[in-house]
Amino acid sequence: MTFRIFFLMFVLSLGFPMFSFSGIIPKNIFHVTDSFTGKNNSEINRRFKMILWAIIAGTRGGVNRAKILNLIKNNPLNANKIATELNLDHKTVAHHVKILSKNKLIIKAEKNYGAEYQLTQIMTENQNVLEEIMEKIGTK
Amino acid sequence: MIDFMLAAVVSAFLNIVLLLIVIGTYVQNMRVIRSYYTSGLVLVAVLLMIQNIVIVLFWSTLYMDDKALMMSADMVSHYLFAINVIQSIGLSVLVWITRR
Q1: What are the residue boundaries of the structural domains of chain A, listed by start?
Q2: How far apart (Å, rounded) are the C-alpha atoms in residues A107 and A52?
Q3: Where do the domains of chain B lie?
Q4: CA gap B42, A110 in Å, rounded
Q5: Residues of B in contact with A56 (CB under 8 A)
Q6: Which residues of B touch A59 (CB under 8 A)?
Q7: For the segment A8-40, what is each residue's pLDDT rounded down to a tens digit?
């Protein structure tokens, strides 16, 4: 009996292959499309990709949220102008902008009422994810 | 004494209603954005819906017809009730996130 325990400890000390989840799950499980290549921190980018997909594809009015992000991508606009550009109701846009701000995707350039919205740092860094989604919207 | 089986079935009906709301939103999104993500969401929601339909069918057919089964099912019905109520809470949160 004692011998058995010593033998087991010996085997374990040799670096017996322990069970690990990371070993059985393929590393590129979420990289279904090839168009997404993380720049420096692929772990954060992969998670961000999932969050963006969830906000756009998993909620009501997510398509309009994607359109808002795509619109203010290059030129920051205030809520009123976004509504005019996208031909949406002002209250709808105000709601979407609130949700997008809460999820740290866009940020007000200044603090005042009619301030322009622009993409946050992490959203700017991961614009390729947005482009990927916009392509899918474009093709229907 | 609460009839846990009946309570569980009421909860299952509630789950079906919640899942219908979620599936409605997901299908609307899938029609615009065709991707593995949107189809996956619909598939998951549909499978959960089938689960709840099976519970309702079990209650309305097997459970009602078979007295012996009714007795043994009543002995564990509080577990089914707990499972369904927890699922209802989870789905309510999902509906809230999805519809806001």
Answers
A1: 41-135
A2: 16
A3: 9-99
A4: 40
A5: 33
A6: 25, 29, 97-100
A7: 665 556 554 455 555 555 555 444 444 444 445
